[in-house]
Design a protein that fits this description.
This protein has 219 residues and is mostly helical. It folds into two domains: 5-20 and 142-209, Endonuclease Iii, domain 2 (Orthogonal Bundle), CATH 1.10.1670; 33-137, Endonuclease III, domain 1, CATH 1.10.340.30. The protein has helices spanning 5-19, 25-32, 36-46, 51-64, 68-72, 76-83, 89-107, 115-119, 126-137, 146-155, 163-173, 179-192. Helix 1 (5-19) crosses helix 12 (179-192). The radius of gyration is 18 Å and the shape is elongated. The protein starts with a helix and ends in a 27-residue tail after the last helix.
């Protein structure tokens, strides 16, 4: 018998709400404006960058330009200054400009709504593409980051070595209605309770159904 997904998600969601912590950065930006371009750009900014830095950097950038056309009116230096101190901000600024040009030239200024096209854009990997589909278009896709990969294996749902393997494994066992909320929930849950090292198993709402794989020490 597989996991009781409804029960597990409900318990995790209740625990996350009780902690009263903020949403992941891209979810915060997505709620401020229902716009795939903002989701794509903020997801790119978020890579190797803390949530609070991502939110502030995204807001500064979008106050300057929030469409591909407006972005091209900015210099790379202006974009760099707006998103600093995001990790690899110079590379990200260059990619944002390149993507803006491609969107205008190839897609009529719109973000494509399929993974194949998204993955052809500079600086866009599987995680960025899937999160753009999730939050920008509400299209079912499993977005696996370090939290999703770690918790899914720790719980015993899957047994994989790499995030890309986790995506395929989860697709086989998880009902589609959970694909979109999975990333936001597990990122927040992983930041608050199911931490990489010494997780808070004593207050974890799903400890009784967790195999605790690779957990050597807990609190």
């Amino acid at each position: 018998m597989g996991p009781d997904w409804d029960d597990i998600f409900a318990r995790m969601e209740k625990a996350v709400r009780a902690q009263g912590k903020n949403l992941p950065s891209v979810s915060t930006i997505a709620r401020e404006a229902d716009d795939p371009f903002r989701v794509l750009v903020s997801t790119m900014i978020s890579l190797r960058t803390k949530d609070e830095v991502t939110v502030a950097a995204s807001r500064r950038l979008f106050s300057l330009a929030d469409t591909p056309q407006a972005m091209l009116a900015c210099s790379q230096t202006e974009i760099e200054k707006a998103i600093y101190p995001a990790g690899f901000y110079r590379i990200k600024a260059a990619n944002i400009l390149s993507i803006s040009k491609i969107l205008i030239a190839t897609y009529g200024g719109l973000v494509p709504s399929n993974r194949e096209s998204l993955l052809k854009l500079p600086g866009v990997g599987v995680k960025t593409a899937n999160l753009t589909l999730n939050l920008g278009f509400r299209i079912d896709a499993i977005c696996v980051d370090t939290h999703v990969h770690r918790i899914s294996n720790r719980m015993g749902w899957i047994e994989t070595k790499k995030p890309e393997e986790s995506e395929l494994a989860l697709e086989k066992i998880m009902p589609r209605r959970f694909w979109i909320p999975l990333n936001e929930l597990l990122v927040t849950f992983g930041q608050q309770i199911c931490k990489p090292i010494s997780p808070y198993c004593s207050i974890c709402p799903v400890s009784d159904v967790c195999e605790k794989r690779s957990v050597e020490r807990s609190r």
